[in-house]
Structures are given as C-alpha cells and as structure tokens.
Amino acid sequence: MKNGGQLIVEALEANGVDRIFCVPGESYLAVLDALHDSKIRTIVCRQEGGAAMMADCQGRLTGKPGICFVTRGPGATNASAGIHIAMQDSIPMILFIGQIASHAKEREAFQEVNYKRFFGDIAKWVVEIEDAARIPELVTRAFAVATSGRPGPVVVSLPEDMLVSETEAPAALPYTPVETRPGEAELDELEKLLGAAKRPFVILGGTRWSAEAVDHMRRISEAWALPVGVSFRRQMLFDHLHDNYAGDVGIGINPKLAARIKEADLILLVGGRMGEMPSSDYTLLKSPYPDQTLVHVHADANELGRVYRPTLAINASPAAFVEAFSKRKAPASPGWTDATKQAHADYLAWSTPPKTGPGAVHMGPIMDYLEGVLPEDAIICNGAGNFATWMHRFHRFRRYDTQAAPTSGSMGYGMPAGVGAKSVFPDREVIVWAGDGDFLMHGQEFATAVQYGLPVIVVILNNGIYGTIRMHQEREYPGRVSGTNLRNPDFAAYARAFGGHGETVERTEDFAPAFERARKSGKPTIIEVKLDPEAITPAKTLTDIREKR
Length: 549
Fold this sequence. Notes:
Elements: E1 2-3, H1 4-14, E2 19-22, H2 29-36, E3 41-44, H3 48-62, E4 66-70, H4 74-89, E5 93-99, H5 115-118, E6 125-128, H6 135-147, E7 153-159, H7 160-164, E8 166-167, H8 184-196, E9 200-204, H9 211-224, E10 228-231, E11 245-249, H10 255-263, E12 266-270, E13 293-298, E14 312-315, H11 318-325, H12 337-350, H13 363-373, E15 379-382, H14 388-394, E16 403-404, H15 414-424, E17 430-435, H16 436-439, H17 446-451, E18 457-462, H18 467-476, H19 491-497, E19 501-505, H20 511-521, E20 525-530, H21 542-546
Parallel strand pairs: 2-3, 2-4, 4-5, 5-7, 6-7, 9-10, 9-12, 10-11, 12-13, 13-14, 15-16, 15-17, 17-18, 18-20, 19-20
Antiparallel strand pairs: 1-8
Helix pairs in contact: 1-2, 1-6, 3-4, 3-15, 9-11
C-alpha cells in the first residue's frame, strides 16, 4: 500500500526524471514528502511562471519532458505563461498542480480552478487524477502525449485527498517513444520534385530534432547543394558558418532572404509550422495556397494541410525524415549551386554588426567580442524585445542545443531558462540575454541561480523603455510617448544584493573586462549595459522611425 504522493514520485522515476522545478504548496505536501526519499533533484523557484519556463527549457534542450510542480489557484495561473510558451513552441513538458480536495469541488472553494477549462486551449492534454490507483497509467500517458506527434505541454491535476489516500497499484513502467517515419513513396516523390526544381529552398523548424538529426540535415544539404534557412528562434538547427546556410527566417528578415524564399519554386519545410512570425504574416508562404511547390514534413498529421495546402505532405518527425532522406543519392551537379553560395554570402553580409551607433555604448563591437570568446557549445537564453535582435542577427550559432528562446514572444523567459539550462548542463557556459523590461518579468529567479550555485551570466541591455512597444508607438503615433518609459534599479547592485556578482557598462570598451571579471567570479552575474534608447535597432534609431527616414 502506497499513497498517491509516493506513486507520483515512483512514476516520475520510472520515466527517467532526474529533476523537477517547483514552488512548494500545501496542496501537494504528500509529493514533497515522497521527494525527500528520492534521488530526483528538487529545484525550488521564486515564481511559478519561472518554474514552468525552467521546465520548458529542459524539454527544449533535451527533447525529454521538463517537470514542474505548482500549487492550486494562483500557483497554477502563474504557471500558465510557461504552458503557453511550451504549446506554441511544441516543447514537451508536464505541469503537475496540487488541486483542492474532492469533497470541496464546485463550491468555489479556496483557490479552486477548473483546470480542464483553464488550460484547455493552451495545453496539449489536461487530466485530473481522481483515483490514486491510476497514477502509474495516467502519468506514463502524460509522458507519451507530451512527446508524441507535435510535442507539447501536459497538465496533470492532483486532488489533495487523492495524494494522501493509500492504494495498491502496479509498478509504473516508462512510456514508449513513438516515431513517425516517411514512406518510400513519399521520398521517391520528393526526389522527383527536387529533380524538376530550379530554385529550391529548405526551411528547418519545430522540435523532435537531435544532434544526430542536425548532422544528417547538414549532409543532405551538402549532397544536394541546398540553401538552408532556419525558422524563427530555431537557429541552432544549422551551422551558421556552413557554406549552405542562408539565414534566419524570422522577425526583421534579411530582405534578400525574403526575396529568395518568395522566388523559390520549391520549399522543403521540415518540422516547422511556418506561423505568422516566420512567414512574415503569411506573405513568404501564402495561406492556404503557396505560390511555391511546398513539401511539408511534420510529425503530426493534423499540422499537414492545416495552414498551407502542401504539394507533398510527409508525416514524419524531422529526425526520422532526415535519417531516411540522407540515404538517397543526390544528382552529381545540381543547377542551383551558385545560388546557394550567393545565399550564404548574403547572410554573412547581413550578420556583420555595425561598428558605431548612437550613445557611448555600441553593440556592434560588443557582439564582435562575444563572437570571439564564446565557445561553440555556449547556451544562449533570451526572452522577447528589440534587445534580442542583436543576438539573433549577429550571433552565429554553430551547434544543436545552444538556443533557448520563445517563439511565442514571451517576455521574461531568459532568466528562468538560464537557470534551467545551467542546471541541466553545469559544465557549459550559459548566457542570458535580456532587456530591462524583459528581465524584471522574472528577474527574481536570479535568486534561484544563487541558491543552487549556477553561475549564469546575465547581460541586461538597459535603455529605460519597453523598446519594442516604443518603436511601434513612434511609427504609428510619432512623438506621442505613452506607457513605455521605465525607471529601473541599479541592476549590478541587484545582483550583489542576492549574493551574485554585478557589473555596469557605460562605454563600449568597458564590456570586455566586465565580461572577463564575470567569468572569473564563479558566481551568477548581471552585466548591466546602459544603452542609449536611440539605439533601438541595428539599422534605425528612434528618431529615424519617428521621422520615417
């Protein structure tokens, strides 16, 4: 006889869980008690949204579900930000919520929420376990749902009385991963379509990739001389210095790359959904009928034909597809080889940072410095805002599992993601790239980094405004500033107050020594870079945007 809390922990152990991220609550004390005797590492966080984002980051970088535990009511609603990120990004994670006792349901009891209704549209599956004997079945099913087809977040509600009830239950067995492979007929058809193409282009996106799959894709691109772009915030899927890399198909796309995609006669879209952001509001690929011949490869059949009608739909995971297609023989000399070389040259020119700009701090030289000192396996974590443009456009990603950034555009993701990344990969350098408004959405998780000795380096670009909104405001309502100014703390002092290391950069030349001191400190660090608000984008200032120059 075991109680529900013990059965939950045993099911986690059976499914290979090595850590959880949580904010404790009295609604799941039985689980916390069972974790006391487990080898699972419990990382206690400062806010449930941060905990959920840490779990998302683990799922994002490993492909295995990240695990988060929160309490009922406000704990669950706080965590919903992380669930929405995981859903839009197709990330496997499982959120366990302590729920009110069964006898109190439907009375608007203390902190009562109907989680099936609340999470129904932003989670892949929501379930409430009412009988402790079904824990092994339903927890293992949660892992299967989170990882199969198009991965996503699963929410599991745990009534308090169920967790303390004792029952007999079968030992939990691990979930069985489900692979979706392409058929030979589909691969034959793809070969014919490529053979007839004159201007093909490949776009990589989504999840269910691996380092091995990325290597298979590299070999395919070399064999067929294919130009390869990566979807918004999926830059770790192809080496940016490879001769076939054409650039990031995301926000603020290189105009030459956008033209190349529009003029392509065949698009091979592998793993991605090509949503609003990477499609430039459905203009690069028109919905529902693209101008280009579209070959769409996706692990979830429900995504094939959902937004675009493909000429050829291949229901397969990216990993299985590239493994199979890499065995196909390519033509001796594809006719688009020169165009592929030109696409890479265009990318290199686009990704070379400017040397100057407004104010005393110039981000171009700082990006050049970071490109020279960051190791290839450094993990870059960021939230959302104009500040991210500097990293997305000018950092050249070289390896898989080196990027954690939300395609949903959620602010505040970088700091908790950095904690999650460093806990999973303690021997790798983790950089959190943040804006001032962005950082303070979940800046309290810096305390979690200090508590667990996770020396992430947080670079905050502080321009004293909500930059992206201000940029749009100046474009649409020039000179009428409203609701976008910020008064910020001393971020270096903030870091020191938590027990970390703090640096302030007010001139370009101050950055390199500050970064080296941060590395040598061995502590979680905040480097505050005081950036002129005029430096809103690499190409245009706020004044340029206001005056429509």
